[in-house]
Write a structure and sequence with these properties.
Layout (H helix, E strand, L loop, with lengths): L1 H22 L4 H22 L7 H25 L6 H65 L14 H4 L6 H6 L14 H9 L10 H15 L7 E5 L6 H10 L1 H6 L4 E7 L4 H13 L12 H6 L7 E8 L2 H6 L7 E7 L9 E4 L5 H13 L10 H10 L4 H10 L5 H15 L5 H13 L4 H9 L9 E2 H12 L3 H13 L4 E2 L3 H4 L11 E3 L2 H11 L9 E3 L9 H5 L9 E6 L17 E6 L3 E3 L12 E6 L5 E4 L12 E5 L1 E2 L15 E5 L4 H4 L6 H4 L5 E5 L19 E5 L19 E5 L19 E3 L21 E3 L21 E4 L1 H6 L1 H6 L4 E4 L12
Parallel strand pairs: 1-4, 1-5, 2-3, 3-4, 9-10, 10-11, 11-13, 12-14, 13-15, 14-16, 15-17, 17-18, 18-19, 19-20, 20-21, 21-22, 22-23, 23-24
Antiparallel strand pairs: 6-8, 7-8
Helix pairs in contact: 1-2, 1-3, 2-4, 3-4, 8-9, 14-16, 15-17, 16-18, 17-18, 18-23, 19-21, 20-21
Length: 861
């Protein structure tokens, strides 16, 4: 029933709006008003939900309409809570949208809600009157039977006559017959197995709304963990869910968080955080403290005054914090706050018995549930199809040992494969079982057999994913570019491999990337990839089968303060690695030691530091093509030892994220082969202000330039216009960028120009009309752009324009009718009217009105 979903959404929405009120100043009044409306709406929606009545079609339609609007409000609130404070324009836009949603909800309540409540109350009274009549008749019959039994059967003192009473008849009207038949009842104790009391009552309240099957093990585990969480006393303050990787621990934890009984018990104060192997503890502790107490903190966690620590939370009552993927006892102990009512659910591969006194060890799937999950992945149905070899399918399922992730991945890899592939898979899985002693290693051997079916380059691309830190989003742009350079792939082939790995459940694409990033002119900048920990472990396991110096990928699996000792012991030998991945904190020049990488083509440096010295062994990488520097700290990093760049003659791609780019000296050595430069969340003003470096001499072959979220960028240096090789310029979310160089028309090779989400940009230079090769122009979200160049029609190669959310545009140039190659324009409804004349002159032109979008995922991370 739609009321169930509306009630859940409304409850979640209230929680998100509280975050907005606390964190986002400009959205606060609108969020407070919307919260008041939803607060008034929520109990009424819940009352309809608990009425237990199957609604007529027209009422379901009305509630569906409400649920859709609440979903929009929830999405809007979540993104507003994550919106940075500096994004003033976006915050104001969000506030206006909240106000519109509030008005809509108010009108809906005035029109429909009284009729819904009256109808439900009437049905409820009739239904319960009938049920009470049945109960009274049953009790009368029971009393008569008991009296007759007492007259015939002697009863010992202190015993209870259990037999002879028609229990199933007594329960008629309270629980479904199937449930009553499976519930064992003991005198003086609550039922500890079968369906718990809460679920029996849920059958009464939500009759006809069956829960989607998630497996017997998940349901049993869910009830056990719920009992632990709702038990009193300090002993139950920390509850654990443990099991091997891929066994469904996180799935179970999320099911518990969504459970209505748990949400009611904790009054929706439930917070879910992923910890991982290398967490930023100070940042995580500060975030949890703010969530639990409701108190904002300016500064670091260790700067919270003692009086505020003793003050505790503003809202009293129980709080549940779920810590997912915990690896170390020391980390867990740091996250234990001594606050009344504060409970932690620890999800980990380990048990931590010294801290976690109540632990549920997750069980693997039984035969029936395992077969159902496998068939869904392999055949997209719940059972074995008629045309499949049932014996062979069951043998493969048996080798998966009931592990959910193994069932899904192996099933997906065998989808649409001939029987010989299935037989080969069964044999390889069987051989893998005898190799390792522990279940964890068996899993890795099972998973290794899965990637054996991948073609050579697809398999290598999968193994490359282990080069990135766990529990971090992998920028799609970095991944595609690395594959192109490392495996000599075209961009289209690299994207096809990405889709294949996604379809086989070997990685996860964010934000519908398969469809949206597949557009010919899409930028990969806003898309990300993630990978399950077990799959990453598999990649590391396969990579590490070779001796250290012979490995194709040399990877630090987690963040450490220094390089591995094993590397130092072998530093005098040359390393054969093509990919080198280092994950560290702050590194000074003295923290490095010299190593030799004659075959290295990719270097990935992940770190969290205010200052970072580049490794000296960059000079021993003559074949280096791709250099990726990603700072996971809270502020931009100052780079040191930049002189090593002078040796990177073959460097083709450079990715800098959250780096303070230093000024370029006049004597900068040209990077002759550098094709792509990406600057993300960087500080650029110091490098550009007053710079007299001729970028066309320093970067003579640069073809792709990307600048994203560099908020101190006010204008581009004019020397960029001298780089005749530039084919693509993408500038996004640079809120202070006010102008483009007047010489922009000199970029004779430019085919793609993106200048989107740059609200300070008011006009485009007239010289842009001389870009005869320009095929794609993106000026979307340029809210203050007032006009387009009059000679826009001279862009004879232009095929597509994206100009959505350009609200200040009132006219388009008359010359636009001469854009004979133009086939697609994306814009808002008001601007679409301006293209009517051009549509008559351009036969193949399609003007698409963009839907109003509440999605602010571009603000996240």
């Amino acid at each position: 029933m739609e009321t169930f979903f509306a009630g859940e959404i409304a409850t979640e929405l209230v929680k998100e709006l509280l975050k907005v009120v606390r964190r986002t100043y400009l959205c606060r009044p609108a969020a407070e008003q919307l919260k008041r409306s939803v607060d008034a709406l929520l109990p009424i929606v819940q009352e309809i939900r608990h009425s237990g009545v199957e609604l007529p079609q027209h009422r379901q339609s009305q509630l569906s309409e409400l649920a859709d609007q609440l979903r929009l409000a929830l999405d809007l609130a979540r993104k507003a809570a994550a919106s940075p404070r500096w994004n003033v324009y976006r915050s104001m836009q969000l506030a206006h949208r909240m106000e519109r949603l509030d008005r809509w909800i108010s009108r809906w309540v005035e029109r429909h809600m009284p009729a819904h409540v009256l109808a439900d109350v009437h049905h409820l009274r009739v239904d319960y009157s009938a049920r009470l009549d049945r109960i009274e008749r049953t009790l009368d019959m029971t009393a008569a039977s008991a009296a007759l039994a007492a007259a015939r059967v002697p009863v010992a003192v202190g015993s209870v006559p259990f037999s002879g009473s028609p229990l199933t008849e007594m329960m008629d009207g309270l629980v479904p017959a199937a449930a009553a038949a499976t519930v064992p009842v003991a005198v003086g104790t609550a039922p500890s197995s079968g369906l718990p009391v809460a679920e029996m009552m849920e059958g009464l309240v939500l009759r006809g709304e069956g829960e989607k099957p998630v497996g017997v093990g998940i349901r049993v585990g869910k009830e056990r963990v719920k009992e632990m969480l709702m038990a009193g006393g300090d002993r139950a303050a920390v509850v654990g869910i443990s099991g091997i990787g891929g066994s469904g621990k996180t799935t179970l934890a999320k099911e518990i968080c969504r459970d209505p009984q748990i949400r009611s018990y904790f009054n929706d104060k439930i917070y879910f955080e992923t910890v991982s192997q290398s967490p930023n503890l100070e940042s995580l502790k500060l975030k949890l403290w703010e969530q639990i107490t409701g108190n904002m903190v300016l500064g670091a966690y260790n700067q919270i005054p003692q009086w505020q620590m003793e003050l505790g939370p503003r809202d009293k009552g129980p709080v549940l914090v779920v810590l997912d993927d915990v690896w170390a006892l020391a980390v867990l102990e740091e996250l234990l706050f001594r606050i009344p009512g504060y409970k932690i659910l620890v999800v980990s591969r380990f048990k931590f018995p010294s801290v976690v006194k109540n632990n549920y060890e997750i069980e693997l799937l039984g035969e029936e549930d395992a077969l159902s999950l496998f068939c869904h992945a392999a055949f997209e149905q719940q059972s074995i199809p008629f045309t499949a070899d049932k014996k062979l399918v069951k043998q493969v399922v048996e080798e998966c040992k009931g592990l959910p992730l193994a069932l899904k991945v192996i099933g997906a890899s065998l989808r649409d494969q001939p029987p010989k592939f299935w037989a080969r898979a069964k044999n390889r899985l069987a051989r893998g079982e005898a190799i390792c002693d522990s279940h964890e290693n068996k899993l890795l051997e099972h998973m290794a057999s899965t990637i054996g079916f991948l073609s050579g380059k697809v398999r290598e691309c999968f193994l490359d994913l282990g080069s990135f830190p766990e529990d971090k989003r992998i920028p799609l742009d970095v991944l595609i570019n690395m594959w192109m350079e490392l495996h000599d792939l075209d961009e289209e082939d690299a994207f096809a491999i990405l889709v294949e790995l996604s379809n086989k459940n070997l990685l996860t694409l964010f934000k519908d990337a398969q469809n949206r990033a597949g557009d010919i002119y899409s930028s990969y900048m806003e898309f990300f990839v993630t990978q399950h920990d077990v799959l990453r472990d598999l990649a590391l396991h396969v990579n590490n089968c070779e001796p250290l110096t012979s490995r194709r990928r040399l990877i630090m699996p987690r963040r450490e303060n220094e390089l591995p000792r094993e590397w130092e012991r072998n530093k005098d030998e040359p390393f054969e690695a093509q990919i080198v991945s280092i994950n560290s904190g702050e590194m000074k020049e003295s923290d490095w030691f010299q190593m030799h990488f004659p075959k290295a083509e990719v270097l990935i440096l992940n770190f969290s530091a205010d200052q970072y010295s580049l490794p000296p062994f960059l000079s021993t990488m003559p074949k280096l093509k791709v250099l990726v520097l990603i700072n996971h700290g809270t502020s931009c990093t100052l780079m040191q030892n930049l002189s090593v760049f002078t040796t990177l003659n073959n460097l083709r791609s450079l990715w800098l994220e959250k780096i303070a780019v230093p000024p370029l000296p006049k004597t900068t050595v040209p990077l002759q082969n550098l094709r792509k430069v990406s600057l993300v969340l960087c500080e650029l003003n110091n490098s550009l202000r007053g710079s007299k470096v001729d970028l066309s001499m320093t970067l003579p072959r640069l073809s792709h330039l990307t600048i994203d979220h560099c908020i101190d960028l006010t204008k581009l240096p004019s020397s960029i216009c001298n780089i005749g090789s530039l084919q693509c310029i993408s500038i996004s979310n640079c809120h202070d960028l006010s102008e483009l160089p007047g010489e922009f028309g000199k970029l004779s090779s430019l085919e793609i120009l993106r200048v989107y989400a740059c609200p300070s940009l008011k006009r485009l230079p007239q010289s842009i009309c001389r870009l005869k090769r320009l095929k794609y122009l993106d000026i979307s979200q340029s809210f203050n752009l007032r006009e387009l160049p009059e000679e826009l029609g001279h862009l004879t190669s232009l095929e597509k324009i994206d100009m959505r959310e350009c609200s200040q545009l009132r006219t388009i140039p008359r010359s636009s009718s001469s854009l004979k190659s133009l086939g697609h324009v994306i814009c808002d409804e008001e601007v679409a009217l301006l293209w009517k004349e051009a549509e008559r002159c351009i036969p193949d032109l399609r003007v698409q009105v963009a839907e109003e979008c509440f999605n602010l995922d571009w603000l996240v991370e």
